[in-house]
Amino acid sequence: MIADLGDSELLSRHVAGDPEAFGVLVDRHRDRLWAVALRTLGHPEDAADALQDALLSAYRGAAGFRGGSAVTTWLHRIVVNACLDLARRRAVRPTEPLLLDPASEPAGRDRLGDQETSLAVLAALRTLPSDQAAAIVLVDIEGYPVNEVAEILEVPAGTIKSRCARARARLAEQLSDLDPRRSSDHPGNESAPLAVKDEAQYGEEHP
Amino acid sequence: MTDDHLSLDDLAELDEGLLPPERTSAVRAHLHGCSQCQARATSIADVRGRLANLPPVTMPADVKARMDQAIAAERDVAAGSASHAGEDEEAPSAAVVDLSSRTPDVMPARGSVKRPAFGRPSMPAIAVAATFVLAGGAIIIGHANHSSSDGASSGGASVTAGQEGGQIVLPESTANLTLAHTGTTYTTTDIGTSVQGLLGAASTLDTNGSAQPTVGESPTPGPSDGVGGGAAQSTGGARASKSAKASRKRSQPHRSSAPVTSSGSLNAAGSGASAKPIPKALKPLATSRNKILDCARNITGELDAVPLTVDFARWSNPPVYKHAPSAIFIFRSPKPNTVVVYVTNPSCSGNDIVREFAQVPLP
């Protein structure tokens, strides 16, 4: 049974021309990959676009997989990079009104209050710079060990920790604004919308 | 200092063990006696908890269907090129494959055209990435100039979006990509003649519209400057059409049969003595084959867009742009004797990713 094969065996078979292997591999990890894309980008349509780009990249680039890391690490890396690429491209959009569709969030086991909390957290998540968002999604939401996330994002573990710390500080700031029990006396650390950062970066191109 | 309250950043770094030792002791000491900061420290822990407790998500059925179809379409394309690969000796033939019935809405055009257009006509169909975006139209796969022994000119399947409105004809899989650094400052009024001049200098377009570079000499600063850096990468490219399997095996992580070859190398063209150094801002783009192809994809929204020629030059459109380093991407157009020109910024991103768009008739 092809479904019983390990990830790297599936990938090898795909590279060797097995038409089914890649589909089986993707199927096995699809929910996790989807969760990473959705949480990093915050928008189902964007997440689907990025994931599709990523899967096709992986499909075509499978021969480039060196085996130095787990197949899942490699897959996650491609997905996260596709998300970051897309976030960069999306940054050209003017800051759009926050459209968080409660219907896109699973209602299931949540009571309404929990769901509101979730939405607030997700809304706050969307204000993070995308590299921080990717780190915190992988570490705090998906629960991957810092070392694995460092491997996925190809940066030192210390960088992941520091991105996570900054992201948590930012989220705490925003979520405490919503929480009357804790009024913030530290108004600094405003989150700069991506688009502004992006413009500043290329400012010298407008003499 | 020690009397100041702790910032959330401090507390988050303490929590993550990132503070240097002395700072850690100072922060702990303050925290010990400050209920306000203790509450803020709790808020960091709260954030962790709230993130960890977000409800898990599963891929919705429609997204799953879309991914499955995209992968299936990619597999079909790979299988299609495999079946063509063995036909080197045959006369050019065309196969019309109508995939519309089995791949509805595999990849709707969204996600590709959403960018601010600066004086650019709207191009609803530009997102048709012909190799696997099958937006309901027939895909025509034919052979162009298929020669068996000469790697440089052996084209793979030439894939054309068989839909009116498609703005870009993708080059065949081993088409040439010519890079130039003419130092020209392109302007809205001169873009046509500049492009015509560039194409005249760098290549001639035969009646089939395929590029045949005629530039042999490397201009200063030449390949040592990195422009020719793709040469090594693309040695395999010339052989790509020999076998689809080989083609798959050599495929890059982010690009498939990315067709950047010209006599097996990334061509550097400049108008001889008039060639000027590449503007510094453009170096990263100009020296990376992958960046060029990524950029082509970003500006056109075409996953497999490969430009005919790229000139790393300048753009003026006062008062906004004055000799701004810009990359001039030239693509084939489905219209005969016409090319499509995009002017983009060095990073190939941001809100002026497309500084100008033009269709230029060729003489």
Structural class of chain A: mainly alpha
**Of all protein chain pairs, which has the greatest interface, and how many residues does each chain bring to it?**
A-B, 77 and 73 residues
Quick check: average pLDDT of chain B?
Answer: 62
The helix content of chain A, as a percent range, equals 55-70%
What is the residue-averaged pLDDT of chain A? 79
**Oligomer state of the chains in this structure:** heterodimer
Helix proportion range of chain B: 25-40%
Beta-strand percentage range of chain A:
under 5%
Distance between the termini of chain A: 63 Å
Backbone shape of chain B? elongated
* Count of discrete alpha- or pi-helical segments spanning 4 or more residues of chain A: 9
Please identify the structural class of chain B as seen in this structure. alpha/beta
The H/E string of chain B reads HHHHEEEEEHEEHHEHHEEEE
How many domains, in number, for the residues of chain A?
A: 2
- How many DSSP H or I helices of chain B? 9
Low-confidence stretches of chain B: 84-174, 204-274
User: Strand-and-helix sequence of chain A, N→C?
Assistant: HHHHHHHHH
Largest sheet of chain B: 7 strands, mixed
Number of strands of chain B: 12
CATH topology name of the largest domain in chain A: Rna Polymerase Sigma Factor, Chain: A
- Overall tally of domains of chain B: 2
Quick description:
Chain A has 207 residues and is an all-alpha fold. In chain A, 63% of the residues lie in helices and 0% in strands. Chain A is built from 9 helices and no strands.
Write up this protein:
- The complex is a heterodimer of chains A (207) and B (363).
- In chain A, helix 2 (21-41) packs across helix 6 and helix 5 crosses helix 8 (157-177).
- Chain A folds into two domains: 1-96, RNA polymerase sigma factor, region 2, helix turn helix motif (Rna Polymerase Sigma Factor, Chain: A); 109-186, Arc Repressor Mutant, subunit A.
- Helices cover 63% and strands 0% of the residues of chain A.
- With 207 residues, chain A is an all-alpha fold.
- In chain B, strands 4, 5, 8, 9, 10, 11 and 12 form a seven-stranded mixed β-sheet that branches. In chain B, strands 1-2-3 form a three-stranded antiparallel β-sheet, with no helix packed on it.
- In chain B, a hairpin with a 5-residue loop joins strand 10 and strand 11.
- Chain B is elongated, with a radius of gyration of 26 Å.
- The chains are: A mainly alpha (207), B alpha/beta (363).
- Chains A and B meet through helix 2, helix 3, helix 4, helix 5 and helix 6 of A and helix 1, helix 3, helix 4, helix 7 and strand 10 of B.
